[in-house]
Amino acid sequence: MSEQAPAARSQPEREAGATPTGDWTVERLLTWTREYFGRQKLESPRLCAEILLAHALGCQRLQLYTRYDAVPAAPLLDRFRTMVREAAAGKPISYLTGTKDFFSLTFEVTPDVLVPRPETEVLVERAIDLVRKRLTHGRDPAAGPLEILDLCTGSGCIAVALARHLGAARLLASDCSEPALGVARRNAERHGVSERIEFRLGDLFACWEGQAFDMIVSNPPYIGVAEATSLPVTVRDFEPHVALFAGPDGLAILRRIAEQAAGFLRPGGRLLLEVGYRQAGAVRRLLEDCGWDDIVIFKDHSQHERVIQAGREGRTTTGE
Asked: Are the beta carbons of 24 and 53 closer than 8 angstroms?
């Protein structure tokens, strides 16, 4: 078979999975697309094929298995064929479907925001754990709700996930991109937490002058410009560079946060940052140079040092 994406009723009957009339059944489409994506070096080719076909047909992935012999209508095949071409060219699957699951929630994503990634879930897990075990312990109810600031919110996945799991907390989130904030607001509405998250447009702390928070979290840009050529095409050519790159060493934004965050934290507050998988040591030194000395480093599920928690209480450790 040529590398051309499948067209309705256009291939010979001898193709595997074809009906006697040569139709493209769901089973045949999945088989062909999985093999094609494999040749194109897409990660998880079978999963990508299932996600795109389910999206094109307007059904759940599991429903594909009950429709193996079904022959999609020509307009649906055309839609699927277009998405297959775009995916093979490197466009992220989540931009093609317009959604991405994160922390057991489905988020809208567009090319204006980064695609949420599994490693960022570690940041959310640590924030929830910290709030439940430490920041709310002995807290005076008269002090009002715990307030958490999410810098560089992007799609809003961190703020929304925290709002969903920390019902007594108030979330505040900002980004320097107006289109990204539009996506974040829609995600907050989608998950019923829009009244508990305040969104602002601004560069880091510029839009929060005079305010203080119990926790500051951020998944900021942290890739060095020099690393651009080594990134996958799906990232380098499609995701927003303003959300990816941070100066020559990737530390420009992290450095600013380390320098400024203490002025926006209440006593006993904590800072949680996602960092690049080889940056934890450098970011720890940045934090120490800025007076942070209660530093804990947590690994992601691939055992990379990924999340740094910092305070002002005099110790540095590595978490599990």
From this structure: no
Residue 31 neighbours by CB distance under 10 Å: 16
Q: In the 8-state DSSP scheme, what is residue 18?
A: -
Q: Which of 207, 93, 212 is nearest to 153 (CA)?
A: 207
pLDDT digit string, tens, across residues 36-92: 999 999 999 999 999 999 999 999 999 999 999 999 999 999 999 999 999 999 999
Q: Which residues contact 4 (CB under 8 A, 6 or more apart)?
A: none
**Domain spans, the chain:** 26-89, 99-318
Indicate the pTM of the whole model.
0.89
**Under 8 Å CB-to-CB from 141, ≥6 apart: which residues?**
none
Read off φ and ψ for residue 234, nearest 5 degrees. Answer: -60, -30
Q: How far apart are CA 180 and CA 195, in angstroms?
A: 18
Q: Confirm or reject CATH 3.40.50.150 for domain 99-318, answering yes or no.
A: yes
Residue with tokens 């904030």: 181
Average pLDDT of the chain? 91
Which of 30, 12, 32, 7 lies closest to 22, judged by CA? 12
Sign of the dihedral through C-alpha 262, 266, 269, 273: negative
Distance CA 249, CA 279 (A): 10
Backbone angles phi, psi at 186, to 5 degrees: -65, -35
Any residues with CB less than 8 A from the CB of 114 and at least 6 apart, and which? 154, 155, 239, 240, 243, 244
**Phi, psi angles (nearest 5°) of residue 233:** -55, -40
